[in-house]
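Lab notebook, entry 728. We have the chain sequence and a SMILES string for 3-isopropylmalic acid, and the next step in the workflow is to get a structural model of the bound complex before anyone spends time on docking refinements. Request logged below.

Task: model protein plus 3-isopropylmalic acid, output structure tokens.
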Amino acid sequence: ASNKKLLILPGDGIGPEVMGEVHRVIGWMDKRRAVGFELEEGLVGGAAIDGEGAPVSDATVEKAMAADAVLLGAVGGPKWDDLPFQQKPERGLLRLRKDMALFANLRPALCFDALVEASSLKPEVVSGLDIMIVRELTGGVYFGEPRGIETLPDGTRRGINTQVYTTPEIHRVARVAFDLARKRQNRLCSVEKANVMESGVLWREEVTKLHAAEFSDVELSHMYADNCAMQLVRAPKQFDVIVTDNLFGDMLSDAAAMLTGSLGMLPSASLGDVDASGRRAALYEPVHGSAPDITGQGKANPLATLLSFAMMLRYSFDLGDDADLIEQAVQDVLAAGHRTGDIAVPGAAVVSTAQMGDALLAAL
Amino acid sequence: ASNKKLLILPGDGIGPEVMGEVHRVIGWMDKRRAVGFELEEGLVGGAAIDGEGAPVSDATVEKAMAADAVLLGAVGGPKWDDLPFQQKPERGLLRLRKDMALFANLRPALCFDALVEASSLKPEVVSGLDIMIVRELTGGVYFGEPRGIETLPDGTRRGINTQVYTTPEIHRVARVAFDLARKRQNRLCSVEKANVMESGVLWREEVTKLHAAEFSDVELSHMYADNCAMQLVRAPKQFDVIVTDNLFGDMLSDAAAMLTGSLGMLPSASLGDVDASGRRAALYEPVHGSAPDITGQGKANPLATLLSFAMMLRYSFDLGDDADLIEQAVQDVLAAGHRTGDIAVPGAAVVSTAQMGDALLAAL
Ligand SMILES: CC(C)[C@H](C(=O)O)[C@@H](O)C(=O)O
Ligand SMILES: CC(C)[C@H](C(=O)O)[C@@H](O)C(=O)O
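Result returned:
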């Protein structure tokens, strides 16, 4: 019996298509690397709404909590856009994050050498770019109470959300970021709006305290979120690791991803705490969305999901060598000129999802 | 006696230096265009902390409310960085915004032809860029209650801020944005996180209602804030007018400003309601900050403040022709190759703040 229980949640849109290529790599690993997984599959997002009546079912949440890792495709699509807030596909993803306590979202923004030209930024600004954004994922305005829409006696409506962070929430995500910085260039930039928000003042104070107490070897700086948005556009290579809250992290990591010009290439990992049995709750997913415009046409780029799978090998199963193999194979297929539509260069041939999978397996 | 009461608040850092060039243009207008102003001057930010014991004094706030327009330089600097939250220079600016009820912040992101190369983005992505971001400025998480840091019985600290919007707050800023769209390309994109925040759901619903009721001739679209951050990097020219809340607007307008590559060139206007006497509360300021690193060296670019002054002529005093003159003169000095350090090209000569002022007056 395997000790690698993997739950696969293909989700919506291009999710199932890109996940198909992961299955092929899993088959290859079993045969060629003697690494076997115990696989389960489930529904999330619109697929779960249609199939099980909720954006994620209790049974799926239970499976996710029991798994050693979860690999997710993407959620959402026009079909479910007009559903009420609590029933939208996104709620499935948000519930998984919260129930699995996945407080640290790791979003590498890496500019692949072969794809420098795909960026809207000048090559010299982004070539060699390698930032790691650590986004807090289970707190802040995403989950804070009170929240909702109320109608006042005079008919005015009021929409409320609450941004809230506690010291332990700040410490645990900052710790992940400091640890990552140590394995990289040893520089951490903490981002908030301490000039405007008290939650940002607390964030800055606590990150500073933790730095002094446990990580004084890491170079720490602080930056306001608006300035960070600017600096990412101006000179992104100044950053090594960035740590920030849920909402700022949502925007900044997307902006950073777009700098690379290849959203279809970027993986992410969402990590929880290590439990008594040494297991760390973890969910991996590509940064790109469900891409309804190209769904079902075999056009999707599977590399972000394959790289998410590689992150899983590294962070959840300590299979760094196998992760290296996959990451190298991705570099190789790019260097060989294989391009799905999203990373195509004018004039060059465009391959399908399955052809990209073929090329990757061949490179492996 | 003039009916143009103008309060000038130079503020900190390079604020006083760039404001010096505005005074020269005011002198020119008096002499050559027979447009006179009744001028007052006051302190704000660190200068007010040092001089009057608070980031803005009650007397200055009163003067601002009595003026027809306020022109502000910049606030903040390392000297005041360690002051407690409530005493920081920024609080002066935030109090002015709130007390003057300046709910609509207009931030044009314009890429000047002569400066296309200064952008970190590829020329084809930004040349001709002309976006107007309308940011809500007196609500949301910047001012919402409850707020603060509390210590729980077990010693845990909790930082709280409240994101709150009411229907009238949404309507009045959206109305400004729709009106602006009509004078431009007639397209408005409303930005929030309605997939995660109820305040965003309300925002989207109310903008949609207002559109149907009063502005159905304007093309309206909706976008999530994270996607907007990406789209600004990927293809900024897709936008005409963007309307968004205080916090998203802070980040998105800064990112948009940086796309143009010339932060030292960008003005802003913050507008309130028109009162019974037909006067609209208004504050104008450059987008750039106080730039402590170059303060007192005569290196600052005065053009953003001069363009803010031009916006003032247009929006507060209905002097569109005079605003045109100044804007054209700015284009002319750029075309003639005059460059302060921030917009310098390698090899070309760099002029001082005063020399840029000279060139502008000559062009006028
Ligand atoms: C789908 C949405 C709820 C989600 C978020 O806002 O966190 C997405 O944008 C992301 O970044 O994973
Ligand atoms: C100085 C600061 C309080 C301010 C803000 O956050 O609004 C600034 O960033 C701005 O955008 O005008």
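Notes for the group: Residues A 195-196, 226; B 90, 93-94, 250 surround 3-isopropylmalic acid (ligand 2) (CB under 6 Å). Worth checking against the assay data. Chain B touches chain A through 60 residues (CB under 8 Å).
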